[in-house]
């Protein structure tokens, strides 16, 4: 089973930059998108009858938003954590037979950290929500988590410490989330791999020089680790200031594959 996640930074713009070609190339069972930046009826995508589409739009036009395209029909779909209090379209939860899938666009603390307090409170609620789901069945979480967790996940750790996305507080929240029973699938498989990032500033030459941050993730309940096959970061894929990330699992409805 292959799952893909991509912060497209505006789906309509990304479609004009190769989104559909990449979508077809992946052959994903589930494809998650963050920062769609559109409202219902503003785009028409034809991925065939094989895929069902689920959208969580932000109330504010041209802002935030998430979507999931899936070959596997979900048992249920949930929009946000508390629908009446989350107008930014940041979370979609799909329930499948063997697991929950949560795609998320985590709030940015802003350059001046004016939204840091909100971000930290949001992190606590989100972690609690994932733990509630995990008590029922395993969880796979993907999306733009807006934090480079470790120094290995950012090109210039020393000069960026304390900046939005690399504050001690945000990194601690990520540590607490992983400590609540989840794994970072990429680091689980590749703990020492360096210079692999998923976001780059739009400043000239930054992406060419690979001065990036790894802020897009696939996390999973730790008990799913025996089924984990691979995790990838497709740094070569353009179309957004983020690149897609993906993960592959063996059949989660079957016993774990034998370990070699």
UniProtKB/TrEMBL annotation:
The record marks 216 as: Important for catalytic activity. Mg(2+) binds at residues 7, 35, 144, 146, 241-242. Residues 4-242 form the Endonuclease/exonuclease/phosphatase domain. Its cofactor is Mn(2+); Mg(2+). Probably binds two magnesium or manganese ions per subunit. Transmembrane segments: none annotated. It comes from Cohnella nanjingensis. Pfam families: Exo_endo_phos. This is Exodeoxyribonuclease III. GO terms for biological process: base-excision repair. One of its GO terms (molecular function) is double-stranded DNA 3'-5' DNA exonuclease activity. The record marks 242 as: Interaction with DNA substrate. Keywords: Hydrolase, Magnesium, Manganese, Metal-binding. NCBIfam families: exoDNase_III (TIGR00195), xth (TIGR00633).
């Amino acid at each position: 089973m292959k799952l893909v996640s991509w912060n497209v930074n505006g789906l309509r713009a990304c479609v004009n930059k190769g989104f559909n070609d990449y979508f077809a190339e992946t052959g994903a069972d589930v494809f998650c998108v963050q920062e769609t930046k559109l409202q219902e009826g503003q785009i028409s995508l034809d991925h065939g009858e094989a895929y069902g589409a689920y959208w969580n739009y932000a109330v504010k036009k041209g802002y935030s938003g998430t979507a999931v395209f899936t070959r596997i029909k979900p048992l249920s779909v949930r929009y946000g954590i508390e629908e009446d209090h989350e107008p930014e379209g940041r979370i979609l939860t799909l329930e499948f037979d063997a697991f929950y899938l949560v795609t998320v666009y985590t709030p940015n603390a802003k350059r001046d950290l004016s939204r840091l307090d909100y971000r930290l409170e949001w992190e606590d609620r989100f972690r609690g929500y994932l733990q509630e789901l995990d008590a029922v069945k395993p969880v796979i979480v993907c999306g733009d988590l807006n934090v480079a967790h470790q120094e290995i996940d950012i090109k210039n750790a020393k000069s960026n410490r304390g900046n939005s996305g690399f504050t001690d507080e945000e990194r601690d929240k990520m540590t607490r989330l992983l400590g609540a029973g989840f794994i970072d699938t990429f680091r689980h498989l590749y703990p020492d791999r360096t210079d692999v990032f998923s976001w780059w500033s739009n400043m000239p030459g930054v992406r060419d020089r690979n001065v990036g941050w790894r802020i897009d993730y696939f996390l999973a309940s730790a008990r799913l680790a025996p089924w984990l096959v691979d995790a990838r970061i497709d740094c070569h894929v353009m179309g957004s200031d983020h690149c897609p990330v993906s993960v592959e699992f063996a059949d989660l409805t079957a016993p774990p594959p034998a370990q070699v």
